[in-house]
Amino acid sequence: FGARSNVCLSDCLLPDLVSMWHDLCVPVSGSADADLKSLRQRLQTLQTLGYDVVAISQEAQGRISQPVNPHVRLPVHLSHEHEGSSRKLQQLSRVTVQLSDPAECHALVNGTQLQAFDIIAAVPTTDKLFAQCCERLDVDIISMDISARLPFFPKIPQASQAIERGIYFELNYSRALTDATARRYFISNALHLVRVTKGRHLIFSGAVRKNRPVGVLRTKALAVMQLRAPHDVANLGRLFGLSQEQCKAMMTTNPRAVSIRGRMRRHVHKSVVEVLPTDAVPPGQSWVLTQVGERSADAQVLPS
User: Fold this and answer.
1) Dihedral of CA 158/125/27/220: which sign?
2) Of 11, 30, 72, 234, which sees the most CB atoms within 10 A?
3) Minimal CA–CA distance to 130: which of 119, 148, 145, 118?
């Protein structure tokens, strides 16, 4: 009951993201200022392709040896041409934690600096770490490099437990577009994930990772080639036997649920009610304040 009430309340306070297209993994370095120009170009390309919401992701190791800034370069200011367009690009913060040892899970449980991010993703490298992510860790996304040979294979009981806890699995398609071997692994591993999850709680993302130093022009060209329009990405799900509705959900409603889960993790603790200041209500949801004011005016004060 509590989780259901939380989602309903968040639906009223968050912008209407049901029909918005998401890409929840746009990697960026947490310290190199040279990446800012490249990041801005990628965001402008995503906005041109039709995306509405993106998550700028920083990578971190499990023990978090250096501070991670949850508000690094957010929001990234786009060019005047893109900022003046009718389609606004909403930017979220994300941290992707690489887990290689069970002791590193402590940072996800007690790491206060990680809890400030809008989205927390974990990348388990062993079967035991994958089980911990599904059963105990408070993460929003479980991500794996499905464009390569997996060190383990997810099992149905573990995936079912993660789904019950509201965790989503990420399918990254970028490497499969430029490498034949990666494409074979991507299709094989994606089919396995669809099988163990029964097509539920899956999201697509197109993380454009850094390429090897093969020249600036070629690197930028490869980065552009690894980006696709949201409708094209959604159609990839048809290769795995998913329905048209499931494919669209992987780019719209499922990522939206991830952002809601992250919001609940940061703002709600053992409660079914979230209290926010009135200035935190988005302009598009100002009708909520109007209805609350009308109900307060109609309320009768009973004599004590």
Assistant:
1) negative
2) 234
3) 145
